[in-house]
Structures are given as C-alpha cells and as structure tokens.
Write a structure and sequence with these properties.
The chain has 145 residues and is of the alpha/beta class. It has a single domain, classed as YqgF/RNase H-like domain (Nucleotidyltransferase, domain 5, 2-Layer Sandwich), CATH 3.30.420.140. 43% of the residues lie in helices and 27% in strands. It is built from 5 helices and 6 strands. Helix 3 crosses helix 4.
C-alpha cells in the first residue's frame, strides 16, 4: 500500500493549527499551534514541520460562512495555501472547514489547544471526502496478492 502523510493547517490571523495524518489509516492527530505575527506565519516552525513529517500533500482549511459565501478569511487562507505550495513545492488541497472550530470547542469544552484540534477535524473531513483515494491505493497493489 502506498501510504501518504498529510499535514493540515487551520489558518488564522493570529494562530495556525496543525495536524498530521496518514492515508492508509485515514487517521489524524493534532500537533501544535504556530503563531502568526503581523499577518506573517512563523515560516521557521512550518519549515521544521515539513522537514520532520515529509508530507506528500498539504491540506488547508477553506473558511466560508455558514451559508457558503466567501468571507475575509477565505482569501487569506487561499493566499496561505498558495504560499505553502510555492515555498515547499508540495501539492495543496483546500477543504471546506465550516463548523470545525465549533466542533473542536465542543470536543475540548474549552479554547485551549483549539487550533490543532480544529486542524485535526479539518483533516478528518478531508479523509471522509476523499476516502476513494485509500481504496484506489489498495486496488493498485491488487496484483501483489
């Protein structure tokens, strides 16, 4: 099986939550929070995460209003995704992140460590919406059995 590692980013104006996951198991783990200062992410921390996890793909939460319309953060998250792809030459997928912070807050019952848990929830959404990728990977190795 061709396992892929994915890093997911929940982009915000002050903080970015990060989670990691594996396509073979479709599981995600909350990792950490990266500070954003003067609208600039801490690229050094992101560099270290990329070097440590060697992801095959990056996922960025794509924020919309509950009604599905664009908002100010939609443009900011798209810009962040383009910056990631340009800097690291790793494909980036955007995934609708509506209600991820609400779910994280409900799960944690606080706002401590909210951002990485939101990133984990976003990545779990990506896995649910892309579950056929896992099956294609398994099918591609069928002749090995």
């Amino acid at each position: 099986m061709n396992n892929q590692t994915l890093l997911c980013f929940d982009y915000g104006e002050k903080r970015i939550g990060v989670a990691v996951g594996q396509t073979v198991t479709s599981t995600a783990t909350a990792l950490q929070t990266i500070p954003v200062i003067n609208k600039k992410p801490n690229w050094g921390m992101i560099n270290r995460l990329i070097a440590e996890w060697e992801p095959d793909k990056l996922i960025v939460g794509h924020p919309f209003t509950l009604e599905g319309t664009r908002q100010k953060m939609t443009d900011a998250a798209e810009r962040f995704g383009r910056q990631l792809e340009h800097r690291f030459k790793i494909p980036v997928d955007l995934i609708d992140e509506r209600l991820s912070s609400y779910e994280a807050r409900r799960e944690l019952k606080s706002t401590r460590k909210l951002d990485p848990v939101s990133a984990r929830i976003i990545l779990e959404t990506w896995f649910r919406e892309n579950k056929d990728i896992r099956y294609r990977q398994i099918d591609s190795n069928k002749e090995d059995y």
